[in-house]
Amino acid sequence: MSELVRKLSGAAPNPAFPRGAVDTQMHMYLPHYPALPGGPGLPPGALPGPEDYRRLMQWLGIDRVIITQGNAHQRDNGNTLACVAEMGEAARAVVIIDATTTEKDMEKLTASGAVGARIMDLPGGAVNLSELEAVDERAHAADWMVAVQFDGNTLLDHLPRLQNIRSRWVFDHHGKFFEGIKTDGPEMAALLKLIDRGNLWFKFAGVYESSRENWPYEDVAAFSRVVAAHAPERIVWGTNWPHNSIRETAAYPDDARLAELILGWLPDEAARHRALVENPEALFKLPPFEAA
Fold it and tell me: For 5-28, b where at least 16 C-beta lie within 10 A, e where not — what string?
């Protein structure tokens, strides 16, 4: 198999991104941080690092980024925090914490740019839903958010615990409804009620990971449009770069065209601006953007 080549340039998104746009979901890698047991391994091809991502930022018009701890590094946040340091003020991090994380640990992580904690209750995830309460307790005390990813088709099973989350939190990757949902079904009704509680956001990212259809992913588009129309103030967006589940160059997405498609599911231009700027500022407690 030939080496994966990632697309990092092309025609800019149309319409152009507003100043201050935030990519809320991506991963980045530096040398000398090996993959750890239990995770999926490092992404294929050349290691996608800060210089590659800066090219993507320039192409799409991204000004700020949330670097999410990759599962390859499991509970070792070293790579993610080193990437934040490399990217400077433009970057913040969503990292791994658990029941062993102390208040002093949280202070150090915050000082290093961490603003959130990750839970991934899917194969390869470092911290799953069994530790939700411990993670939420620490995140809430630090005024962090929590990114939660699991198969959304089990949403009703987890509903009582999700209703008790005190932190700001985001339901990752369009809810990862692997079996799909109906826009008038019980999962959708439960999701909208959760959003109405006031501390839940919904992330548009990685549509191809759970869609059962090819482009333009109409199964995911259908319920994503409903969520966006119901609560445009609760949508955030991410590239999901470097698209770790994509293994072949021919299947690698054009990030500008993918962004145009996904952001096109929002009801209007005001909602698009919210998803790219105001909403991530609220979720991650980012300072207002000031152009250099």
Answer: ebebeeeebeeebbebbbbbbbbb
